[in-house]
Design brief:
The protein is of the alpha+beta class. Helices cover 33% and strands 27% of the residues. The chain has one domain (11-148): Pnp Oxidase, Chain A, CATH 2.30.110.10. The protein has a 7-stranded antiparallel beta sheet with strand order 2-1-5-6-7-4-3. A hairpin with a 2-residue loop joins strand 3 (55-57) and strand 4. The protein is globular and about 40 Å long.
Length: 150
């Protein structure tokens, strides 16, 4: 079995950027729609948080992991897809269903259109990359469609 792609965040991202964004979320603010994902840790059993960029396409909300099979992806899978998105006092509970690779091209395209400035280095492609390139990286970029429970 091939090893899962995971681009671990650097010191600055983990200790400065993510904490800054999390603080903004607590105040009810987001950076280009970002929110805080809360999901039960697969080892600790404690709620783990991480800033994410949920987005909508055709009336559905998605999460995509540009860094690959990250800790939040592993925790979400282990938690049976159960999680929460938070911004300020607003909490939305959801169940996530993984999106098949064959359906990721439009998700990757929209994600790149919105956040290429942030994630271009993780994906290794430009925002105007052809669909063939998006299909090539799709298997290494988990994506989930969210069904809200509230």
């Amino acid at each position: 079995m091939a090893e899962a792609v995971y681009q671990k965040p650097g010191w600055f991202t983990k200790n400065v950027f993510n904490r800054l964004v999390a603080g903004l979320h607590k105040l009810g603010l987001g950076v280009q729609g970002s929110q805080t994902l809360s999901v039960r840790g697969r080892k600790s059993g404690e709620m783990q948080t991480n800033p994410v960029n949920p987005f909508e396409l055709d009336g559905r909300t998605y999460l995509l992991s540009p860094r690959g099979t990250t800790q939040w992806v592993r925790n979400l899978r282990a938690a049976g897809g159960e999680g929460e998105l938070r911004r300020g006092r607003h909490v939305r509970h959801f169940r996530a269903t993984e999106v098949p690779d064959s359906e990721k091209v439009p998700l990757l395209r929209l994600y790149m259109d919105k956040w290429s400035w942030e994630v271009k280095g993780f994906l290794g492609i430009d925002a105007d990359a052809p669909d063939e390139e998006l299909r090539r990286i799709a298997p290494d970029r988990p994506a989930f469609v969210l069904t809200f429970q509230d």
